[in-house]
């Protein structure tokens, strides 16, 4: 027996219910995208600010645009396996694809324009998992929240008359953000180095290592170089970092020790502007070995999104609010630059088989 046809009022209620669901979905997407809340901070607004400050350079990252690809392996010594169940910390080799870079959105900037260098790595574990991390050659991050970072970008906007940031705006910003004191103290003495190979690189955000039994340990990590022959950059060479790296690798691999520091119970875990005391337990869990380099335009690092929240089992994100903001901004930048590579004449086309989708 067939069911009776719905009454008109029942059809009306059904369409109202469906329409309400669609409307709620639209509102949700609108809110996430920032369309219905124009003052809400979004990844798009952060990347827009980076793009405004650094200029538009199609096909390049919106920050750390100037860089070079590297490849090698991590030789784990087993010391980290006590605190993390990830297989990357067992004794043995894990290959990685990495990238050295300098901050800023201009891929043609002189290497000596800023004192900061960065190292990003993507470890490919034998079990199919990945660990991605982005580190910088500074001890702390300037600010502790995405909103403060966005305000810093706004304060750093170039003045159209001079092409440089307005000192009064920067002074006002730093005056309103006392958490920047540790970073500013470092900046006063920091000088651009002449080599990526002689820098230490710190993962400024804290994470959790997770044992096989589920016990968590708050950690930060740093890679410390074996090479120590730091020197000022050569005068007149705006690309000395890549040239130096090629020269060094022609003579043999370069090595860094991966040092993992464990937090004490009262140490700040969710604030990247604060350092932990120097007496905290630190483990040498293995050696990073870089064997080769390649120009980023055609190298294996070009299409990698070094999202620091892509983690293997045994490492987890902390509650640091900068981590989800970094992840979202990296994804937005990735989509912009790979879309430009596909449409800009003369730009290198992205290889779909190598793309790392956020």
Features of the shown structure:
7 helices; 9-stranded antiparallel sheet; Catalase HpII,  Chain A, domain 1; alpha+beta; 358 residues; 23% strand; 28% helix
Question: Explain this structure to me?
Answer:
This protein is of the alpha+beta class and 358 residues long. It is 28% helix and 23% strand. The chain contains seven helices and nine strands. Strands 4-3-2-1-8-7-6-5-9 form a nine-stranded antiparallel sheet. The N and C termini lie far apart (52 Å).
Set out the fold topology.
Blueprint: H1 8-33, H2 43-54, E1 66-76, E2 92-102, E3 118-124, E4 130-136, H3 146-155, H4 167-176, H5 181-189, E5 201-210, E6 216-225, H6 240-251, E7 254-262, E8 282-295, E9 315-317, H7 322-343
Antiparallel strand pairs: 1-2, 1-8, 2-3, 3-4, 5-6, 5-9, 6-7, 7-8
Helix pairs in contact: 2-3, 2-7
Task: Say which CATH homologous superfamily of the largest domain is assigned.
Answer: Catalase core domain
Number of helices: 7
Q: Provide the residue-averaged pLDDT.
A: 87
- For the record, the CATH class of the largest domain is Mainly Beta
Number of strands: 9
What proportion strand? 15-25%
> Judging from the principal axes of the Cα atoms, what is the shape?
globular
Fraction of helical residues:
25-40%
Q: What is the domain tally?
A: 2
CATH architecture classification of the largest domain: Beta Barrel
Based on CA atoms alone, the radius of gyration comes out at: 23 Å
Largest sheet: 9 strands, antiparallel
């Amino acid at each position: 027996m067939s069911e009776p046809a719905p009454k008109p009022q029942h059809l009306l209620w059904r369409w109202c219910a469906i329409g309400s669901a669609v409307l709620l979905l639209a509102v949700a997407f609108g809110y996430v995208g920032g369309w219905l809340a124009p003052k809400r901070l979004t990844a798009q607004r952060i990347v827009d600010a980076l793009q405004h400050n650094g200029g538009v350079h199609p096909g390049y990252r919106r920050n750390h645009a100037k860089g070079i690809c590297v490849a090698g392996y991590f030789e784990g010594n087993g010391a980290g396996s006590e605190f993390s169940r990830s297989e990357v910390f067992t004794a043995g080799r894990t290959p990685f694809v990495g990238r050295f870079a300098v901050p800023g959105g201009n891929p043609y900037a002189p290497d000596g324009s800023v004192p900061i260098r960065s190292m990003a790595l993507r470890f490919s574990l034998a079990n199919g998992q990945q660990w991605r991390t982005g580190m910088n050659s500074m001890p702390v991050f300037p600010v502790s929240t995405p909103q403060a970072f966005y305000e810093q970008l706004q304060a750093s906007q170039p003045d159209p008359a001079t092409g440089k940031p307005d000192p009064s705006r920067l002074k006002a910003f730093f005056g309103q953000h006392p958490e920047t004191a540790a970073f500013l103290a470092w900046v006063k003495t920091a000088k651009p180095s002449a080599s990526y190979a002689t820098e230490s690189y710190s993962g400024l955000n804290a994470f959790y290592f997770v044992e096989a039994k589920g016990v968590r340990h708050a950690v930060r990590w740093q890679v410390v170089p074996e090479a120590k022959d730091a020197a000022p950059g050569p005068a007149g060479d705006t690309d000395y970092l890549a040239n130096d790296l090629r020269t060094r690798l022609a003579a043999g691999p370069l090595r860094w020790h991966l040092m993992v520091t464990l937090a004490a119970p009262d140490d700040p875990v969710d604030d990247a502007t604060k350092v932990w005391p120097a007496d905290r337990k630190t483990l040498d869990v293995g050696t990073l070995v870089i064997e080769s380099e390649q120009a980023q335009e055609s190298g294996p690092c070009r299409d990698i999104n070094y999202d620091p929240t892509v983690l293997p089992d045994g490492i987890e994100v902390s509650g640091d609010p900068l981590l989800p903001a970094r992840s979202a901004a990296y994804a937005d930048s990735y989509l912009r630059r790979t879309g430009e590579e596909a449409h800009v004449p003369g730009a290198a086309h992205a290889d779909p088989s190598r793309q790392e989708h956020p």
